[in-house]
Design brief:
single chain; about 170 residues; alpha/beta; 5-stranded mixed sheet; two-stranded parallel ribbon; 6 helices
Length: about 170
């Protein structure tokens, strides 16, 4: 049976209309949801500043770090919030029990006001990121300086060691 020209044209027209169309609205909805998911989840993590010449010790601690003033002790320098305060070589040679430049910087950090002070008698919080090869004498000087600047809630940063399979089964 032979079809007319009009019938063939109508058939071709119907074939063109059946092609699926890319729906951009649903694609934009998916990307919007993905962006919100990433924004919400990325704000819950706090990352400590990292320095290339700083190797943290390893620990099995479970607590997550809090947002505090960070003192980084590298092999060469002492940094407060990323700013160089003193040189490690000079401090190891000095006989002083405290570090005046560190105390001055800690007092400056506390004066900025963005660091919350919940209980004035308990002191402020500070996180110390020390290289695993620094001397105990230097750590003692830093602790004493922190105490004099009213930073008494001291936390030490460490790399978290993964739990072994035996510990996971017990928990």
């Amino acid at each position: 049976m032979q079809t007319s020209k009009r019938a063939r044209r109508m058939e071709r027209h119907h074939k063109l209309q059946k092609k699926p169309i890319l729906n951009l609205v649903s694609l934009m909805d998916i990307f919007t949801i993905l962006v919100f998911f990433l924004l919400v989840n990325s704000s819950n993590t706090q990352q400590l500043p990292s320095a290339k010449d700083l190797t943290l010790p390893t620990s099995v601690a479970d607590k997550a770090p809090q947002e505090t003033v960070v003192i980084a002790i590298t092999r060469q320098d002492i940094l407060v919030q990323g700013r160089k305060v003193a040189s490690v070589a000079e401090l190891e040679d000095s006989a002083s029990e405290t570090i005046p430049a560190l105390k001055e910087e800690l007092e400056y950090q506390s004066s900025l006001g963005f660091i919350s002070q919940e209980n004035p008698k308990a002191g402020r919080a500070v996180t110390i990121m020390g290289d695993e090869n620094i001397s105990y004498g230097l750590v003692r000087k830093i602790l004493k300086t922190c105490q004099q600047a009213n930073y008494r809630k001291i936390a030490f940063a460490a790399n978290q060691k993964a739990k072994s399979k035996k510990q996971i089964v017990k928990d």
